[in-house]
Amino acid sequence: MHTPRQSPAVAPVLVSLDDGIARLTLNRPDKLNALNYATIDALMAHLDAIETDPAVRAVVLTGAGDRAFSAGGDIREFSGSVARGVAAATQEFVRRGQAMTARIEAFPKPIIVAVNGLAFGGGCEITEAAHLAIASERALFAKPEIRLGMPPTFGGTQRLSRLAGRKRALALLLTGERFSPAQALEMGLVNAVVPHDELIPAASDLARRIVRHAPLAVSAVITAVTRGLNMGIAEGLQVESEQFARMVPTADLAEGLAAWIDGREPLYQGR
Ligand code: COA
After folding, report:
1. CATH number for the domain including 33?
2. Whether 235 and 194 share a structural domain
3. Residue 270 lies in a domain
4. What are the transmembrane regions (predicted)?
5. Containing structural domain, residue 251
6. Which positions of the chain have pLDDT values less than 70?
């Protein structure tokens, strides 16, 4: 896999590849993996490389250290942008963070967040944007931006209300109070809660259960669901139809149908 050039000692995001599944690790453990601009930019660069690499079929995204997935936007750094005024704050902080969560949400390969600890602010917003998420029993969530005198800015006012419903989202956004993995599960923010030691194996297992399927079909499902959620049902059905139409000429659809008819396991080629 081509990866952006970084010194491993200081790389803000670590990357490894195991059997088609890339693991990205936010790597500022002494800052609770707070999302400074370098970390966001490195994550985006890794996603660019992964998107075009056929050897990577899915991504597991987690945090380094034993305390945090991510404590959110780097407050010291974005305070500087705020001090420079609206244009700088919007360009440097809001647009960058929104582009990151939009990229994760629309990424054509499945992204599974493994929430290994605190997921506050931007850490929670990444979890909201990801296709799937598994939380450790040690995870802890919060939307604490209100305590800083601001609303969330990485999509945090938009995606949680769509996921969990307006009143549940507003209660969390307006109080800034912490919530448990069990509450996150109940709200549909995560797919499962597992013992801490089982977190990465559980996320990797979920990835493996997906990547055995045709990559183009996986991508089509992600696209149809993600785009469709933000449209009316008629337009959503049109997207679904278009995604199916894209599959019709592919070798993988022919193979999936033939394998079923022959009673054998399909062998997908990604085309
Ligand atoms: N931005 C920048 N630095 C952060 C950070 C953030 N969002 N969250 C934690 N850090 C840094 C701390 O400044 C500290 O660095 P230092 O050792 O150089 O002083 C280090 O990470 C450890 O955090 P600390 O606050 O000492 O840990 P704690 O256990 O006392 O508190 C939190 C943990 C999560 C409650 C606290 O760090 C916090 O409130 N963070 C901000 C959460 C937030 O508001 N996120 C949304 C931002 S938009």
Report:
1. 3.90.226.10
2. no
3. no
4. none
5. 215-262
6. 1-9
